[in-house]
Amino acid sequence: MNYNSSKMAQPTSGDPLTDMLRGLRLDGVDYGRCVLGEPWAVSFPAQKAARFHFIGPQGCWLFSPAKEWIELSVGDALLIPRGDAHVLASAPGVPPLPIGRYTIEPVCENIYDVSNECGGPKTLLFCGSMHFNLDGSHPLLDMMPNLMQAHKLMANAPGIRHLLDAMAGEVTMDRVGSGGILARLADVLAATIIRSWVENGCGDATGWIAAVRNPDIGKVLATIHLQPDRDWSVEALARMMGASRSAFAQRFATVVGETP
Fold this sequence. Notes:
The chain has 260 residues and is α+β, with helices and mostly antiparallel strands. It has a domain of 175 residues: Jelly Rolls (Sandwich). The protein has a seven-stranded mixed β-sheet with strand order 9-10-1-11-3-6-12, with helices on one face. Strands 5-4-7-2-8 form a five-stranded mixed β-sheet, with no helix packed on it. Helix 1 runs parallel beside helix 6, helix 3 runs antiparallel to helix 4 and helix 7 crosses helix 8. The N terminus is likely disordered.
């Protein structure tokens, strides 16, 4: 097993979920405030960094990584954790142009204004690319869905609503410094989306990520995660869980889907 995400151990909180997420950071690569007149369609190529989109007035459509059209409501936010290729459009069927073909003007470091020349009703978006500070082999990345929508998590995570409202205010007013504020809000919102997904059952995910919800196995995984360079033995992990070697191995395999 390779759960390497950090070379330095950190203190545990006693809460496996908190310990798993403590090391999760999203480092912004670049951001764009998009003002697009209809009709428009933007294609985003596959990349290693995650993609984030906030949907302002007018709403729009997503041609998702799963190759289906999804209507997006005003004030929603999306996270595409593995940066899969996708399209945002004013309506299905509009021929897409790569993001690089739009007018892009720098505002400040890593923040840009993106626009087109179409004269129809304007759609406002705030888009960003973000790197997770996790090792590429970390199971959290593999087990995330290819698309996360903030609106689908709000019922059990009311804090998301406040972040979305704050982003809506900044993206529509275009005040001095709004680009930097939007970038920071995007980072926080993306991390909150991931946390809410984990806290609310991880969708259909099984294996490692599902084990976070198990207090005994979750504690073991959190400790491995925080001390990746230690040569862990099954016996030591069993003692941590307070079980025999055989009972621990059986429980671990049942919850995680692989042997310890």
